Amino acid sequence: IIELTDATRKFQEKYVRHLEAHADRCQELLEKSYAYATAIVPYLGYDITSQLVLESLDRNLTLREIIIEKKLFTNHELNKILDPLKLTRPGIPGHFIVKEENS
Residue 67, CB half-sphere, CA atoms under 13 Å: how many? Predict the structure, then answer.
């Protein structure tokens, strides 16, 4: 256990503490990812969401661009639904906000 503790400490000192997150690059990669599709399914259903993903692949656009182009959601609504921090928590991100704005 002592060796593992020392190794962990050395790893942290030598590598982990020097890591820097590049927020813009992370956001860019997330936008290009189709992981967002899972957050859209509760709103549009699996069939429509999968069609949107296929179209975005065919047209080399992001899922967000396709959704906005088709006027399924506004950019503001998508920001609420696709909030990366909220996507890591239980529930459906943007559920109440989108519902209130559409009422």
Answer: 26
> Residue 55: which pLDDT band, with cuts at 50, 70 and 90?
very high
User: How many residues are there in the chain?
Assistant: 103
Rounded distance, CA 73 to CA 58, Å? 21
Range of the domain at 56: 2-102
Distances (CA, A) of 15 to 2, 23, 50, 82: 20, 19, 40, 31
Residue 1 is inside which H or E element, if any? none
What CATH number does the domain containing 76 carry? 1.10.40.30
Q: Would the pTM of this model clear 0.85, i.e. be above it?
A: no
